[in-house]
Design brief:
Layout (H helix, E strand, L loop, with lengths): L1 E3 L5 E4 L3 E2 L3 H4 L15 E4 L10 H9 L4 E2 H8 L3 H13 L3 E4 L14 H14 L1
Antiparallel strand pairs: 1-2, 2-3, 4-5, 4-6
Protein name: DUF742 domain-containing protein
InterPro entries: DUF742 (IPR007995)
Length: about 130
């Protein structure tokens, strides 16, 4: 069964998955206009996004009622992180989202990301899906 989006175009098929290539969603753009880390926190401002943005923009905005990381959003909408970052940058540019970089940890070996922690988070996300 195909789900329909704007204009009656089929964007998703339950058996086949996404019918539109991820980079089509970002209009072929692969570089966001703002810098986002996977741990950058974004949150809706309450301002309306620019008219003409795609359904993915609305979906992303719906996930941002409270602070949420770029990685979480990418996992929820099932798009590559780079495409998610482009969508987020569009929403930040129009004032619909705010972004905050992750808190800096003191410099040195202790500031490196703990691989075991990241793997545990990834495993937890996979179990949720």
């Amino acid at each position: 069964m195909r789900r329909r989006q704007r204009g009656g175009e089929a964007w998703y098929d339950d058996a086949a998955g996404r019918l539109v290539r991820p980079y089509t969603i970002s209009n072929g753009r692969t570089r966001p206009t703002a810098h986002f880390d996977l741990l950058t926190m974004v949150m809706a401002t309450g301002r309306r996004p620019v008219a003409g943005q795609g359904p993915e923009h609305a979906q992303v905005l719906g996930l941002c009622g409270g602070p949420v990381s770029v990685a979480e959003i990418a996992a929820h909408i099932r798009l590559p992180a780079v495409v998610t970052k482009v969508l987020l940058a569009d929403l930040v540019d129009c004032g619909a989202l705010t972004a905050r970089a992750p808190a800096a940890v003191s410099a040195g070996p202790a500031s490196r990301t703990d691989r075991a922690l990241l793997e545990a988070v990834l495993n937890g996300l996979r179990k949720r899906l």
